[in-house]
Specification:
alpha/beta, single chain, binds S-adenosylmethionine, binds iron/sulfur cluster, ten-stranded mixed beta sheet, 3 domains, D-tyrosyl-trna(Tyr) Deacylase, Chain: A
């Protein structure tokens, strides 16, 4: 019998990037379509639905080959039935159609598009406005309002002119959860406003625990500002997570990780995430990054120190997968 497949991410996600709309998280470079005009929004959904059907018939799109999110249907319904089933509405929207930022991290995957220029004042995306597209998606009932989970990535939202309008349209429509990734350099008052209206996951990539390392990685001298903002955010009813991207030659040692954990203790932050730089120069130049042995030691050290300090040491499942495999490649 023909094997049939499905992917939860493909069923649920619309990832608005600068040049394409992806159907899953952009890190997989999965299937995508061109940015439609708001009135042609149906094209995004049509293409996604044809991909869902393609998998259901056992044909794996080239972009999905080898992806660990691709699952075989264990109890497949007859093809005829699933053909007439209503295609799922979007449950996750990723906002990253802008690349401007008020710092320029040495590791940033997004900076190749923005030319590493530091932007201090709010401005429009260099690519397109997302607000009209979201309005049209709501109008055409293509969003699962009750289940919607929105992730703001970018660029940095602190310099995106439509950030607050976007947050507000999601709030007005009863969004279930909003995740905001930011560098923490500028305090975002809207977080205070929405904290009581929806579940807010605020994650801040600080990648360091001292001013010197922060400056080397983020290329701006703003560690103290971030620290002050963290002290304000920690008092809000939000899930506050601090992030540390392991960047070779910058912060890939126990001393730096310990300083980072001490900073969390000092401020009272109890959630942390350790990541691997996915734009490591070996990966960019040779197409493969082999995880060095000492990384495994750093991950164990991180887990142990976090637990000792009452901090929850999250490691993203994708990173766990990479650690198991021992490398990641194009
Ligand atoms: C591109 S950033 C945009 C949001 C925000 N400016 C920030 O830094 O959190 C989105 C997320 O991607 C992560 N990221 C960026 N470049 C990365 C890399 N080379 N490896 C792993 N994560 C990366 C950031 O740490 C952040 O959590
Ligand atoms: S199978 Fe993988 S690459 Fe394909 S849509 Fe799903 S998450 Fe993306
Ligand atoms: S703060 Fe975020 S968007 Fe800005 S350079 Fe760093 S990782 Fe990139």
């Amino acid at each position: 019998m023909t094997k049939r497949y499905y992917c939860k991410r493909l069923n649920e996600t619309l990832d608005f990037d600068a040049l394409k709309v992806f159907y899953c998280c952009g890190t997989r470079t999965g299937p995508a379509c061109d940015i439609p005009k708001p009135k042609e929004i149906k094209n995004i959904i049509k293409k996604r639905n044809s991909l869902i059907k393609q998998l259901d018939r056992g044909n794996i799109p080239i972009e999905c080959e080898g992806c660990f999110d691709l699952k075989e249907q264990t109890k497949p319904k007859p093809l005829l039935l699933s053909f007439f089933c209503k295609p799922p509405k979007a449950k996750m929207i990723i906002v990253k159609h802008f690349k401007q930022c008020d710092c320029s991290c040495v590791y940033c995957c997004e900076q190749y598009l923005s030319g590493r220029k530091i932007v201090l004042k709010s401005k429009k995306s260099d690519y397109y406005d997302l607000l009209p597209v979201i309005k049209e998606l709501y109008k055409q009932k293509m969003i699962d309002k009750k289940e919607l989970d929105v992730h703001f990535q970018g660029g940095n939202v602190s310099v995106l002119d439509e950030f607050e309008d976007l947050v507000n349209i999601f709030i007005e429509n009863g969004v279930k959860r909003i995740e905001i990734a930011t560098n923490g350099i500028k305090y975002l008052p809207v977080i205070d406003d929405i904290a009581k209206k929806t579940f807010v996951d605020l994650n801040i990539s600080i990648d360091s625990g001292c001013r010197e390392t922060f400056q080397k990685i983020k290329t701006v001298d703003k560690f103290e500002e971030v620290k002050e903002n963290l002290k304000k955010y920690v008092k809000l009813p939000v899930l506050l997570r601090l992030k540390y991207i392991l960047v070779r030659g910058y912060n890939d040692n126990k001393e730096e990780i310990e300083k980072y954990i001490n900073l969390m203790k000092e401020i009272g932050i109890t959630n942390s995430e350790l990541m691997i730089d996915q734009c490591d120069k070996d990966f960019i130049q040779n197409g493969e990054f082999k995880i060095p042995d000492y990384y495994y030691e750093l991950f164990s050290f991180y887990k142990e120190k976090c637990i000792q300090s009452g901090i929850n040491p999250t490691i993203w499942e994708y990173i766990e997968e990479i650690l198991k495999k021992g490398s990641f490649f194009k």
